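Structure representation:
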Amino acid sequence: MTAVDERRVPDDHVACAVDTLALLASASRLRIIHALLHESPLAVGVLADLADLSLSATSQHLNRMRRAGVLKATKDGVNVLYELADDRFVNLADAAFWYAEHMVDSDHHHHHDDDHRRHQIPDRAPPRP
């Protein structure tokens, strides 16, 4: 193995990162995730209302995230309740919302020249308490 090979990220790590980020690459799923970050577990109907989606669309998003292992579903009588199941995914989602909040807030408070970078990317999101 060469020095370059040792520094190269393994293909399976890249594939996993792509799959995980694809879960976050949907405004509808982000609204669902945001709701679950703040209150959990929640029923499909509540999540549909909070994400402004139909029950069918909400169920499709929930099933995709459940199959990916980031949500768990439990039955409560006739309702199915969902909650985030993977702390690593919770940390990633928190970091995405933290980043967005700071980028949007900085846009409202600062004027940016077209010649300069629009956003300064923080070194890392703060750790979750």
Q: What stands out?
A: The chain is about 60% helix and 10% strand. The beta strands are 42-43, 71-76, 79-84.
